[in-house]
Amino acid sequence: MRASPPDPGHEHEATLIVRIQRGERELFYELIRPYEKRVFVLAFMILRNEADAEDAAQEAFLKAFKHLAQFRAESRFSTWLIQVAINEARLRQRKSHLEVMRPIEDQENEDGTHTPRDFADWREIPSEALERKEIREKLVAALGSLAQKYREVFFLRDVEHMSIEDTAVTLGISTGAVKTRLLRARLMLRDLLAPGLDGVWAGHSQIPKGTKPWS
Amino acid sequence: MVVKCEDVWREISNYFEGDIDPALKQSLEQHFTQCPRCQSVRDGVSNVIKLYGDKAMLPLPAGFDARLQDRLADQFNGRKISRRAWLVSAGVTGALAASALLAATLDRFVPQPRAKMSQPARRLPERLVAVVDGGKVFHVPGCPFMHGKYHMVTADEAVREGYTPCSRCMYEALRSAGKLTPGVEAEEIVRNDKPVNDGNPGG
């Protein structure tokens, strides 16, 4: 339904990489610029803290620069960069012992079907809702409350619009695992956001809240 | 094909991916028209995908780009840094060479010692020493061999003025400061025109 975004000038990128590897270091910024936000948001998804995420993102870019010689042209630069960033963010997360606060969902069996809760009558939320900071914060908080394996998959697929296959390659898991985690992540987020998304955020507050179609 | 709600919940993600058998898709859509709960699930997931997929969802923090560029510049303008480092080290080297040259020049102007039989000090204590008015030797203040009025100068100044170190108090002072090993005779301070043979056990 939604295709992956077109590769932003794959050949241009390959040329840049070769030139950087030959010593034109200044071009590195041009190379990573399209991925700045992606790397930051990814680090944010894992670390759940803006300052840590920025630091991890910077560090990831520096590491990518240092190890650019190890980058093999047969893989995509974006995938490789995301992997570097994921590793960096995970490393920091282990260091900060945040895993102690691992959500209980993580213990659940991945094969188990998720049963949705709260079947409010959702209407379409316009994108303008995102202009409201409290809505963005709620979305971020909801995603942040998921276990990391769901956050990572959901982020790459639904925030970054990577394909299922690329997500699997990036995370080093099977496409089946990606699909399972994606389903659970989407349903869990829906549950978490249902109280806010059932029309209130859509700006239809004149419609009585909490009208359950079956009650 | 009749689908149950559980089937919808299992397939809803694939439904949005378009990764679903057309017959199943049709059955799901049929189910949606009859089941408000599954409609709610469908619309909710649709909203989740739409909202999180929006570019406006997570803006970069203000100044992120500038800070990143700064950090990258620090990292890969290594040439600039090394040029700066080179300048610093060149400066330091230059200063060292200049001071060595100056020292060598000064060496040629070693002051004539006031005491005819004594040699100027080579190993100077980094401290103030006492010079007796009209005397020829500088002392540690309180030295029993020091008599009369005295004033304090740095050892360096005293040497430049032609004073020589007291072979008793200055020797003790240098030895306790670790500048001399006990085996070295006092004459080393006053007569240092031959090289010291510290490292030779037979000496």
Secondary structure layout plus pairing:
The complex is a heterodimer of chains A (215) and B (203).
Chain A: H1 10-21, H2 27-32, H3 36-47, H4 50-66, H5 77-95, H6 133-144, H7 148-159, H8 164-171, H9 175-197
Chain B: H1 5-17, H2 22-34, H3 36-52, H4 64-76, H5 78-108, E1 128-132, E2 137-139, E3 150-154, H6 155-160, E4 164-165, H7 169-176, H8 187-190
Parallel strand pairs in B: 2-4
Antiparallel strand pairs in B: 1-2, 1-3
Helix pairs in contact in B: 1-3, 2-3
In words, what does this structure look like?
The complex is a heterodimer of chains A (215) and B (203). With 215 residues, chain A is an all-alpha fold. Chain A has two domains: 90 residues, RNA polymerase sigma factor, region 2, helix turn helix motif (Rna Polymerase Sigma Factor, Chain: A, Orthogonal Bundle); 81 residues, Arc Repressor Mutant, subunit A, CATH 1.10.10.10. Chain A contains nine helices and no strands. The longest helix of chain A has 23 residues. In chain A, 37% of the residues are buried. Chain B folds into three domains: 53 residues; 35 residues; 63 residues, no CATH class. A four-stranded mixed sheet of chain B has the order 3-1-2-4. In chain B, strand 1 and strand 2 form a beta hairpin. Chain B starts with a helix and ends in a 13-residue tail after the last helix. The chains are: A mainly alpha (215), B alpha+beta (203). At the A-B interface, helix 3, helix 4, helix 6, helix 7 and helix 9 of A face helix 1, helix 3 and helix 4 of B.
Provide a compact summary of the structure.
Chain A is an all-alpha fold and 215 residues long. Chain A contains nine helices and no strands.
| Sheet with the most strands, sense and barrel status of chain A | none
Radius of gyration of chain A: 19 Å
The value of Rg of chain B in angstroms is 44 Å
Task: Compute the number of helices of chain B.
Answer: 8
Question: What's the CATH topology name of the largest domain in chain A?
Answer: Rna Polymerase Sigma Factor, Chain: A
Chain-averaged pLDDT of chain B: 74
* Uncertain residue ranges of chain A: 1-6, 103-109, 202-215
